[in-house]
């Protein structure tokens, strides 16, 4: 009996060795599967282009006994466009992302989010301090390129000649015939990356004018959806089709590979423009609030994506590994930069953390400038000229608060094209007889009153003994904008102030809020944006106003930052009616 048992044991060991050495997946899976018990569910939302590779890898991992802490893990993978999930997370944190719109009521926040770019994480973290995902390591990469019909790219010397963003900017802004386009950068990470690169190319000298010109050119050919944009590329190679179709647009390398795989009449060239734009980096973001057991399961899933087999699946989808190499099945576009085709590096996840190298301030500025340039508005600007605006600002070479604020206002005015309508008021106390406000320029099209508005801004000076008649002025301004409300644009009031209401002869807060509630009409919305400067602002007082009207309050203790918060405020305006 004993010797027979030992023989049976030897046979079993031999069989096990054959199974392992022979690489029998069935045997391995059965043995591994027995090591975990129970089941833990993990919800993962992934950008559609990477989801198939993630799903296939996770299914194999699951079949091989995928577990965390001895518990089997079942991963529910949902394909979700990054902009749609960003809207859900923004709504969860009671913030609004510029251009993103309302959340889809059918989507829920997952345990793990795999968007196409860290820029989504940066934008959300910038607005919602409570949004602090963990992990964030990149699991894939797709460079952002300038996509151009091959015949036009060849006319620029492609693929031998390298093209820079400065070269493209010059062609876009000097009327050389390049028809440009972009996927709405508030809703598309590749579009945003291209926007950031163009903005950097336009810096210095007369950069503001060059950037504005480029943005207006892009805006003419912008699309809300990527499929709509690529449909604008030429469908025939004759000169007329090339001239009338879309000539250049920032897209991901994966977009170009996918487009060319369909054998279009005119293939696209991927121009790897220098300096290199921020790539799509597919961060693996574990959502805040996920319990430790699920966080451990998420880590195990992330490890499963750090394999050669996953890189090969990415390659078949037109995506690179995080280190820039690619797996089998990758159809590299002509001129694709190294590293090319080699084995993954020793540290393949060195592709970046959540937030990558993106500068939140630069990102904010670019989106704000884009929104200001492309969303037509009807705005009444209301400038505080109370005596405190004469205070000096050490960080601005001792210029007055008034001078710093007026410089920001003049810079903002340069962004608005002639489709905008603008009016200008000043306010203090008893500024115009018994009124606390004075109209300098009535609300009207900038096509006819731009010079009047610039001259008026240059003439503004504070009233040395003036207090802050904020409540009376706000009520009057609201009525003024409402009287001429325009259905085809964003109607707004932008008030610049360094204080709180200080007017013994004016209405009180309760009266102001009650009258604003009575005036408010959801069919004719008016957004009130209040920009507070210095440490004399009562932010709570101002927010109680915008809670009634809609809009927002933006406060900076450093007056030199007024230009930045002005742009940020403009970016958060709702889209103009179409």
Core attributes:
single chain; 578 residues; alpha/beta; D-Maltodextrin-Binding Protein, domain 2; 4 domains; six-stranded mixed sheet; 19 strands; globular; disordered N terminus; transmembrane helix
Could you please describe the fold and organization of this structure?
The protein is of the alpha/beta class. It has four domains: 1-34, no CATH class; 37-142 and 281-359, 3-Layer(aba) Sandwich (D-Maltodextrin-Binding Protein, domain 2), CATH 3.40.190.10; 144-271, D-Maltodextrin-Binding Protein, domain 2; 375-571, Rossmann fold, CATH 3.40.50. 41% of the residues lie in helices and 19% in strands. It is built from 21 helices and 19 strands. It has helices at residues 2-22, 25-33, 51-63, 82-92, 118-127, 150-155, 165-173, 189-201, 207-220, 226-230, 239-244, 253-261, 292-304, 308-316, 360-374, 401-413, 446-459, 470-483, 509-519, 539-549, 562-571; strands at residues 37-46, 67-68, 71-79, 112-114, 134-138, 144-149, 182-183, 222-223, 249-252, 268-271, 283-286, 377-384, 392-393, 399-400, 421-432, 435-445, 490-497, 527-533, 551-556. A six-stranded mixed beta sheet has the order 2-3-1-4-11-5. The chain has a six-stranded mixed beta sheet with strand order 16-15-12-17-18-19, sandwiched between helices. The radius of gyration is 29 Å and the shape is globular. The model is unreliable at 1-34 and 340-355 (pLDDT under 50).
């Amino acid at each position: 009996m004993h010797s027979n048992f030992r023989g049976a044991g030897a046979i079993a060991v031999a069989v096990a060795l054959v199974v392992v050495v022979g690489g029998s997946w069935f045997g391995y899976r059965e043995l591994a599967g027995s090591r975990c018990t129970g089941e833990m569910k993990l919800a993962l939302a992934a950008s559609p282009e990477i989801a198939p590779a993630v799903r296939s890898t996770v299914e194999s991992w699951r079949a091989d006994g995928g577990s965390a802490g001895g518990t089997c893990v079942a991963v529910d993978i949902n394909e979700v466009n990054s902009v749609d999930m960003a809207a859900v997370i923004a709504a969860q944190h009671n913030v609004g992302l510029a251009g993103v719109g309302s959340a889809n009521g059918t989507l829920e926040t997952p345990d793990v989010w795999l968007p196409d770019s860290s820029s989504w994480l940066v934008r959300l973290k910038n607005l919602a301090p409570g949004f602090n995902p963990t992990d964030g390591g990149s699991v894939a990469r797709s460079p952002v390129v300038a996509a151009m019909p091959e015949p036009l790219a060849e006319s620029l010397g492609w693929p031998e000649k390298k093209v820079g963003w400065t070269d493209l900017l010059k062609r876009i802004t000097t009327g050389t015939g390049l028809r440009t386009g972009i996927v709405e950068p508030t809703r598309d990470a590749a579009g945003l990356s291209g926007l950031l690169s163009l903005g950097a190319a336009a810096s210095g000298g007369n950069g503001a004018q060059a950037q504005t010109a480029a943005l207006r050119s892009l805006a003419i050919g912008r699309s809300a959806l990527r499929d709509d944009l690529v449909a604008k590329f030429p469908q025939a190679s004759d000169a007329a089709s090339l001239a009338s179709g879309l000539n250049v647009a920032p897209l991901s390398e994966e977009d170009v590979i996918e487009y060319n795989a369909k054998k279009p009449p005119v293939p696209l060239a991927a121009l790897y423009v220098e300096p290199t734009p921020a790539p799509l980096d597919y961060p693996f973001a574990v959502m805040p609030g996920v319990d430790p057991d699920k966080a451990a399961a998420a880590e195990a899933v992330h490890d499963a994506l750090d394999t050669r087999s996953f890189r090969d699946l990415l390659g078949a989808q037109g995506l690179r590994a995080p280190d820039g190499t690619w797996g089998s099945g990758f159809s590299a576009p002509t001129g694709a930069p190294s590293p090319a085709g080699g084995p993954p590096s020793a540290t393949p996840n060195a592709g970046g953390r959540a937030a990558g190298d993106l500068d939140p301030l630069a990102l904010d500025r670019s989106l704000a400038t884009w929104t200001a340039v492309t969303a037509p508005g009807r705005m009444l600007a209301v400038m505080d000229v109370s005596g405190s605006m004469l205070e000096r600002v050490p960080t601005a070479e001792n210029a007055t608060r008034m001078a710093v604020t007026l410089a920001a206002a003049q810079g903002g005015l340069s962004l608005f094209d002639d489709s905008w309508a603008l009016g200008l008021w000043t306010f203090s106390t008893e500024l115009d007889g018994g009124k606390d406000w004075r109209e300098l320029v009535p609300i009207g099209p900038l096509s006819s009153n731009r010079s009047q508005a610039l001259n008026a801004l240059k003439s503004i000076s504070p009233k040395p003994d003036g207090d802050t008649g904020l409540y009376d002025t706000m009520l009057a301004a609201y009525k003024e904008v409402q009287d001429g409300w325009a259905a085809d644009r964003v109607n707004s009031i932008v008030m610049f102030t360094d204080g709180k209401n200080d007017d013994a002869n004016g209405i009180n807060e309760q009266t102001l809020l009650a009258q604003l509630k009575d005036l408010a009409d959801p069919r004719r919305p008016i957004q009130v944006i209040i920009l507070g400067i210095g440490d004399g602002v009562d932010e709570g007082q101002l927010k109680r106003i915008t809670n009634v009207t809609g809009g927002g309050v933006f406060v900076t203790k450093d007056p030199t930052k007024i230009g930045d918060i002005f742009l940020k405020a403009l970016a958060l305006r709702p889209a103009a009616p179409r």
